[in-house]
Amino acid sequence: MQKVTDPRCPMDLLGMAYVETHFKCEAVGKAGETGCFQIMPFNGGSKGSFTADASWTLQRLVRHGYPKNRTWAIQCHNSCNKTTYIKKVNKATKIIPLLYAQASKR
User: Which of 20, 46, 48, 90 has the fewest CB atoms within 10 Å distance of its CB?
Assistant: First the structure.
């Protein structure tokens, strides 16, 4: 697997998982997508853990040109033509630190 050193990578993956399922890794989508990243059955479905699914998702992002073509690669996780997906992921990457801060105060 190619090493990705872009500092946005961890937050991009968290943002994608947040948009897909709000971190509910047991989620099953309408078309049979599974796991935190909602991996389609024809792609093998969920690999059984957040870490394994994140690794699979990152490999797919790299195949689509991540991090150089970040926007396109992230859009292609959810049908390459849906430009609303990248907007949701970008918004989530800003929300997640706030959620973490709130949770740590509890």
Answer: 48
Nearest to 55 by CA among 9, 19, 93: 9
State the distance between the two ends of the chain, measured CA to CA, in whole angstroms. Answer: 38
Q: In which residue are the tokens 């024809």 written?
A: 42
Average pLDDT, the chain: 91
Within 4-82, residue ranges assigned H as helices are: 9-21, 50-63, 70-75
pLDDT tens digit string along 19-40?
A: 999 999 999 999 999 999 999 9
Q: Is the dihedral of CA 89, 27, 29, 46 positive or negative?
A: positive
Handedness of CA 72, 62, 20, 46 (dihedral sign): positive
